[in-house]
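User: Show me an example of a complex going from sequences to structure tokens.

Assistant: Sure. Here are the input components:
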Amino acid sequence: MSIQKTHELVAIEHRALERWGQGDPSGYLEISAPDVVYFDPFVDYRIDGIEALGRYYEALRGTIHAENFEIIDPLVQEHGVMAVLTFNFRCRLASGAELRWNCTEVYRRQGAEWRLIQSHWSRTNPGSSAQ
Amino acid sequence: MSIQKTHELVAIEHRALERWGQGDPSGYLEISAPDVVYFDPFVDYRIDGIEALGRYYEALRGTIHAENFEIIDPLVQEHGVMAVLTFNFRCRLASGAELRWNCTEVYRRQGAEWRLIQSHWSRTNPGSSAQ
């Protein structure tokens, strides 16, 4: 299976992550569709729609400061108007902590633009058991 | 945003989960495409391709016994040949433990069939902090 570091979605995701790592969630909001849905390890239920996601992100604005990050082995599965970008992710926070994540981003074409319609972030192997 | 409990993908997922909960991972393998990719909380990196996923699943065969489970608020975003099914999930194991999950399944049409091309399972709010 080919790894596609050069797919345009990797660049789009990288730009949103750069802003995210500087405490600015607007990069993600600007590329999200109205019907975006969202999972991360800190919410009790899926977040549905850009208004709800915007409220969630606003509470995080200015709280996240990444020293550096890495999109690991990005893969794009593109068919018709949709594409799935998956990758592992590593980031080092200003506190020195290093975090590892799994990420699935689903994008949909709207004219010449890609818009995020589903975002799922989870911790890589946080140490829980399968049972 | 409408919740689509009756979409055919919810039934497909439910059937695969019923077999999974009886220790049989073949239900998922039978609906997976050759290029399926996979994340769960127990793997260190994304699993790429049905052969690698099959090896991973075989090691789990017979080890999982769910008393019951529930697909919570399934939502399908379908565009062209692809569809994203997202839901929260609750299951009670034979041990009595109750687990909650976030799930994103991406399906692609192949002729008259749907095939899973991306599967991402993570624990709902496992209690880690945002920083």
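The lines above are the inputs; the final block is the predicted structure for all two components together. The beta strands of chain A are 32-39, 47-48, 66-79, 82-93, 98-110, 113-123.
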